[in-house]
Amino acid sequence: MITQPLFLGTFSLYSIILSGTAALGLFLSWLLSEDKRSFILDAGLGIIFVSLLGGRVGFVLRNLAYFLEHPGQMPKFWLGGLSWPGAVIGAVLSVVAIHLIWKEPLGVLADQFLPLLGAMAVGAWLLSWWTGTGYGPEVDAWFGITIQDLYGFSLKRWPLPILGALFCGGWTAGVILFPIKRQRDSGFRALAGMAGILAVNGVLSFFKVDPVPVFWGLRWDSWFSLISLASILIYFTISRTDKKNEGSNP
């Protein structure tokens, strides 16, 4: 199990990147909201907390044999170790819980926190570079970046972390800023943003070579991306069909 060195003797760079991107995403969600800004801050902090909890639970379950021998390290996520599918599940559950408890419209709520989702996706890719997880094949070309892998070797590899961060951040910004007619529909931006992030993670996961368990020939995070993306596309198809039927009725 790799732990991260401390920065300035107190904080790990892992925790600085994680907290910095989360704070940026929360600020953007607050900045783009038109009202209830204090509620956005409070709810956003709750979403971040549950996302971290879900990400840590996913990572612990994935490495359960190690953590059963070292139970004291289970809560120490600042040393490195989060599962991005677990974080996504935690974020979704927290948004649904806020909707049920405070009666905020689910679609509107999800749209408001799309900047937070995008920023944390960017942070997750940057963290994968720092922690040496999810790395690509070796390459001897100008575009290669040096990554220390899980075995401690520093090698030039495909720039998957940079590509993932750029594509996730760019897609999220495009969905938020680019005028699309359906963006008026409550929840459309959030689903479109999440679909793009899942697509980026799903495609790039096929180029990862770090050792992880596979199921039916695919990595567990590849399956999560494909299943989640398929669910969103099915929802889009059904909702579009329903709207066409409503429009055709006299």
Short description:
This protein has 250 residues and is mostly helical. Helix content is 64%, strand content 6%.
Provide structural commentary:
The chain has helices at residues 13-32, 37-62, 64-69, 84-102, 106-112, 114-131, 160-177, 188-205, 220-248, and strands at residues 6-7, 11-12, 145-148, 154-157, 214-215, 218-219. With 250 residues, the protein is mostly helical. It has one domain. The strands form three sheets. A two-stranded antiparallel ribbon has the order 1-2. Strands 3-4 form a two-stranded antiparallel ribbon. Helix 2 (37-62) runs antiparallel to helix 4 (84-102) and helix 6 runs parallel beside helix 8. The N and C termini lie far apart (64 Å). Residues 1-10 have low confidence and may be disordered.
Structural class from helices and strands?
mainly alpha
**Largest sheet data:** 2 strands, antiparallel
Query: What sequence of helices (H) and strands (E) makes up the elements?
Result: EEHHHHHHEEHHEEH
What Rg do the Cα atoms give? 19 Å
Give the number of domains.
1
User: How helix-rich are the residues, as a percent range?
Assistant: 55-70%
Biggest sheet strand order reads: 1-2
Distance between the termini: 64 Å
Quaternary organisation of the protein chains: single chain
What is the overall number of helices?
Answer: 9
Mean pLDDT: 86
What is the overall shape?
globular
Low-pLDDT segments: 1-10
Strand content: 5-15%
The count of β-strands is: 6
